[in-house]
User: Which sequence fits this backbone?
């Protein structure tokens, strides 16, 4: 499975309903699980972003669908990047000419 790291920012709607944030996180985990994905971690952070999630999905297509569903709910905006674990990193580097 592919690994992703998502940087989250609460929208005004998300902040105004902040007490619902834990239940929204639970719903996200269920959505991810139902799509064949795996939740690896969630972190509340300080600075430019409000939270970070680490997760896996069976494909980039599934990941894109999940991110669109999450965005359509209106509570967060995400910036997501594909992450390559150390083993994959080593293979990529080793394949360089």
Assistant:
């Amino acid at each position: 499975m592919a690994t992703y790291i998502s940087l989250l920012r609460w929208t005004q709607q998300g902040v105004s309903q902040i007490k619902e944030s834990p239940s929204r996180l639970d719903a996200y985990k269920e959505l991810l699980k139902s799509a064949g994905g795996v939740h690896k971690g969630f972190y509340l952070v300080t600075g430019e972003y409000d939270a970070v999630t680490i997760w896996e999905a069976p494909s980039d297509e599934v990941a894109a669908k999940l991110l669109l569903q999450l965005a359509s709910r209106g509570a967060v905006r995400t910036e997501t990047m594909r992450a390559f674990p150390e083993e994959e990193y080593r293979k990529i580097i080793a394949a360089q000419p």
Q: What stands out?
A: The first helix runs from residue 12 to 16. The two ends are 26 Å apart (CA to CA).
